[in-house]
Amino acid sequence: KNSYKTFLKELSNSIKSYEYVHETLSILRKNKIVAFTEDSKETAVFKLKVTNLLQYFDLVITSNDTNIMKPNEEYYNLIFKKLNLSPNECLVIGDSYEKDLEIAKNLGCLTVCVTNDKRADYQITNFTELIEILKGH
User: Fold this and answer.
1) Comparing C-alpha atoms, which of 87, 47, 46, 40 is closest to residue 61?
2) Distance from the Cα of residue 129 to its chain's centroid
3) In terms of CB atoms within 10 Å, which end of the chain has fewer, N or C?
4) Number of Cα atoms under 13 Å in the Cβ half of residue 29
């Protein structure tokens, strides 16, 4: 238990959100916003609280919910079911095409990569670019 507390303390000292993510999420708040991660629920919520991002999310899906690590279609199916959405109504943002976006794209979601991976529908270098992408869809 002490080692996990030490881990969380170190994590809180090293974790930071992307530039302009707060401003962008506050503008996009009219949409359903979901975080999905293979982290445990406790670690994921901790990270979102430390970065002051938890307030923007309608749902946080973790490996505790799916009982499986990413990449796996179960993450997306759970989101679609819980929010009553179809894949073509979803935009998925990730930093790894293989872990975050490949399945989403194959299911019919719009994909945005925060790294320079041309296999995604869009690549961004600044989170404010999401606003323009969503305006076009």
Assistant:
1) 40
2) 16
3) N
4) 8
3-state secondary structure of 18: coil
Q: What is the pTM of this model?
A: 0.86
Compute the radius of gyration of the chain from its Cα atoms. 15
Q: What is the DSSP-derived secondary structure letter of residue 17?
A: P
Output b/e per residue, 99-119; b: 16+ Cβ within 10 A: bbbbbbbebebbbbbbeebee
pLDDT tens for residues 36-52? 999 999 999 999 999 99
Which residue shows structure tokens 């401003």? 23
Tokens of 4: 């996990």
Residue 113's DSSP bridge partners are 94, 123
The answer to whether 45 and 54 have CB atoms below 8 angstroms apart is: yes
Give me the residue label for tokens 């990413």.
70
Residue pointed to by tokens 């999401």: 130
